[in-house]
Amino acid sequence: MHAWPASEVPALTGQGRDLRIHDTATGALVTLDPGPVARIYVCGITPYDATHMGHAATYNAFDLVQRVWLDTKRQVHYVQNVTDVDDPLLERAVRDGIDWVGLAEKETALFREDMTALRMLPPKHYIGAVEAIPGIVPLVERLRDAGAAYELEGDVYFSVEADPNFGKVSHLDAAAMRLLSAERGGDPDRAGKKNPLDPMLWMAAREGEPSWDGGSLGRGRPGWHIECVAIALDHLGMGFDVQGGGSDLVFPHHEMGASHAQVLTGEFPMAKAYVHAGMVALDGEKMSKSKGNLVFVSALRRAGVDPAAIRLALLAHHYRDNWEWTDQVLADAVARLGRWRAAVSRPDGPSADALVEELREALANDLDAPAALAAVDRWAALQTERGGTDEGAPGVASRAVDALLGVAL
User: Fold this and answer.
1) Quick one: which of 101, 210, 222, 294 has the most CB atoms within 10 Å?
2) Residue 37 DSSP code
3) For the CA atoms of 23, 317, 62, 68, what is the dihedral angle to 10 degrees?
4) Beta carbons of 336 and 312 less than 8 angstroms apart
5) How far apart are CA 238 and CA 165, in angstroms?
6) Would residue 366 count as lying in a domain?
7) What would the pLDDT profile of 33-52 be if each residue is shown by its tens digit?
């Protein structure tokens, strides 16, 4: 599966700062110090309705991570998946009377278009669950053969008790885990499981549903968590720098994925930091496909909204915050974009060297995009009120905003 084209990232003079970011597993800020190549895995979409503002906010957060790392002169090895076979996708295809493969391809293509328009840097490896199946099957067999998985009526489940570090990502108690498991794709009430929290690794073929050859597992399809584990281990290995996604993935997805990987490799932890973006609401409720309260990037683009304004609307909120999308949020972003473009369109202005350092400092401090936007606002106000004599300042400011915030002025 191919990703989307990369926009050029301007090179800035000087050196960026190492990223301090909130790690869900420790509940604290950690300073990441990758080697020459920084490694990040971000969980991708299930392509049956893409791309709403909640998606966009999540991928914007991890785009900033990449930009901070690139500014430190590191390479970035970024991997993202597409869950192109899963119950919600199949259910939507049945509901609409369309082929599930065609639905997945259509929505994935739209996602690529949205990411391109928003200037999100693409992953080096963009992998679909279906294409990952040949690598998933041996992992499930290894877990089963090691006694860390068991069969139940043809399905194969992972035993959470096989991992002594289970629970160290979310730090939730059993009752909270069980509740979230039921809400987020698990089946804690299924009879015969060793532990209600045990997640499915391999679902035996069901009538009328797609299935693949699973070797000794029989025909079927993979569970949600093992999909990401197989892709991450194949392309990044253990101990990569950041495991990212929305805060709704902390449990069960990232908790279970960590346990799968840790049992498979005997190493801990799977990732050095677990980083999660907040949720975006509309009309008082979290945007979700099940509720249908969605604002789509593609719909805004069709309505003539500049993608740079959409990105500024996202950047106006700290990535870990939960916030609400409103018409005013977008109007404020459109106005800000106009002020910034007017400021950099002048032939000279006040020095922007300090602005570059302010942007670096803000983003290195747990991706504080609102502080970064405030710094550009201050420079733009000085440019408007007093101007300056530095002929290179507008270009420096424009390149910094592009390189570090992904906004083309």
Assistant:
1) 222
2) E
3) -90
4) yes
5) 15
6) yes
7) 999 999 999 999 999 987 99
Residue 290 has pLDDT above 80, yes or no: no
* CATH code of the domain containing 347: 1.20.120.640
Angstrom distances, CA of residue 310 to CA of 111, 115, 307, 349: 15, 12, 5, 27
Calculate ∠ Cα 115-343-371, nearest 5°. 60
Q: Which amino acid is at 50?
A: A
CB 148 within 8 A of CB 161: no
In this structure, the answer to whether residues 236 and 317 fall within a common structural domain is no
Residues 275 and 344 placed together within one structural domain of the fold = no
Question: Looking at the domain assignment, is residue 15 inside a domain?
Answer: no
* CATH number of the CATH domain containing 63: 3.40.50.620
Residue ranges making up the domain that contains 176: 20-297
Q: What would the pLDDT profile of 334-385 be if each residue is shown by its tens digit?
A: 999 999 999 999 999 999 999 999 999 999 999 999 999 999 999 999 998 8
User: Which residue, among 164, 132, 172, 167, has the nearest Cα to 267 in the 3D structure?
Assistant: 164
The secondary structure of 101-135, three-state, reads HHHHHHHHHHHHHHHHHCCCCCCCEEEEHHHHHHH
**Predicted pLDDT at 49:** 84
Residues in the chain: 409
Question: What's the domain count of the chain?
Answer: 2
Among 267, 297, 327, identify where a domain stops: 297
Is the pLDDT assigned to residue 28 strictly greater than 80? yes
Helix (H, G, I), strand (E, B), or coil: what is residue 399? helix
CA distance 405 to 5: 18
Take residue 60 and report the two structure tokens written for it: 């914007």
**Rounded to two decimals, what is the model's pTM?**
0.96
* Cα 192 → chain centroid: 34
Considering the domain architecture, whether residues 39 and 85 belong to the same structural domain is answered as yes
Q: Are 220 and 203 in contact (CB under 8 A)?
A: yes
